[in-house]
Structures are given as structure tokens and as C-alpha cells.
Amino acid sequence: MYLYVRFGWRCALYFARGKKGHDGIKGTVVEDYQGTLVHDHDVTFYKYGTGHQECLAHVLRYLKDSMDNEKDRTWNRQMHSLIQEMIHYRNGLSESEEPDPQTVSEFEERYKTILSIAGDEYDYEPPGKYYRDGYNLYKRMKKYKKDHLLFLHNKNVPATNNEAERLLRKYKKKTGAGCVIRVRQASTISVNA
């Protein structure tokens, strides 16, 4: 059972599905949504919505994993630090304050420079056959750059999907405790947040 959550406007909608991918999205608000989706890197979501922000909390975890498993690389530490700095900058803006275009441009240049370093490091020493996650993350961050940095350009877009994940925790805890979520008749549950 997969649970999708749509959070916004002080309301959360939960959708229970037996499948992931396009079959799991059918019949949810995501199917016709015309806004920005904040999500992990499930490429299915790129077929929906009008904009995307990859959850940077997930990216920070993946970078930490790369740091633990590829101790000889420098790009992962630099990118981890940069993402934390960007999130801190964005969180420090007042509600009436817009991101400074010069600061955003500098962040983007540093992002590109770090990815160039990653490319050089992987060219010099290719990823091992048992651990490719760091390399895959580098390729993904290069390909989906604008989807990692959208939150710097649009204050309505959060850097993470943490709020939606927090709302799902109570269901995750139930399944972890040996309970089964059975949602057959009412597959859409609306909960005030």
C-alpha cells in the first residue's frame, strides 16, 4: 500500500494506492494539478504539475551517504555544505523580502562549479561497481539542476517536502507496528492540518 499526500492551504489530502508510478497517481489531485510539486526523485512526478522542487532533505541524506561511502571525494561535502547554506539563506528571508538575484546567481554558479568538480573526480576515479549512489546523485543533480534550485527563485516553493512527510509519519508508524492500513471504500481521506 502506498500513501500519497497532497499538502497545502492548511489541508492535507491522503490517497491510498496499491501501486506506485502513473497507476498510483491516477484519480488523485496530482493527475490534474497545475502547480509546483515538491517530491523525492520519483521521475513519475515529472509528468505532472507545472514545476518541480526535489526535496532537499532527501538530497542531503543522499550526500551524507555519499560522504560516508566515498571518503576520497570532495564534491559531496562541498555540495552538502552549499545546500545547507542555501536553505539557511532562504529560511532567513522575511515574509516581505524577496531573494536577492545576485545572491541566487552566486549560489547557482557555486552549484555548477561543485558539479564540475564531481565530474572531474568521477572521470579520474570512476565509481565502484558496489557503490554507485554518489555518482547517480551527481548525474541527477546535473540533469535536474533547476528542480533542485527552484525554491531560491520562488518563495512559495519550500525546499523540502518535510511537512507532507510529517503528516505521513502516523501512518508509517502504524504499518511499522504490525498494523495494516485498509482503505478500500474510502480511498481519499481529508484531514485538517
Please describe what this structure looks like.
It is globular and about 45 Å long. It is α+β, with helices and mostly antiparallel strands and 193 residues long. Helix 4 (101-124) packs antiparallel against helix 5 (133-143). It has 7 helices and 5 strands. The chain has helices at residues 21-25, 56-69, 75-91, 101-124, 133-143, 145-153, 162-176; strands at residues 2-8, 11-17, 36-39, 51-54, 188-192.
Give me a quick take on this structure.
With 193 residues, this protein is of the alpha+beta class. Helix content is 49%, strand content 14%.
Strand arrangement, major sheet: 1-2-5
Largest sheet: 3 strands, antiparallel
Oligomeric state of the chains in view: single chain
Helix amount, in percent? Answer: 40-55%
The overall average pLDDT, rounded, is 81
Structural class: alpha+beta
Order of helices and strands: EEHEEHHHHHHE
Task: Tell me, briefly, the overall form.
Answer: globular
Strand content: 5-15%
Q: Give the low-confidence spans.
A: 177-193
Tell me the radius of gyration: 18 Å
| Helical run tally | 7
Could you give the distance between the termini? 22 Å
Number of strands: 5
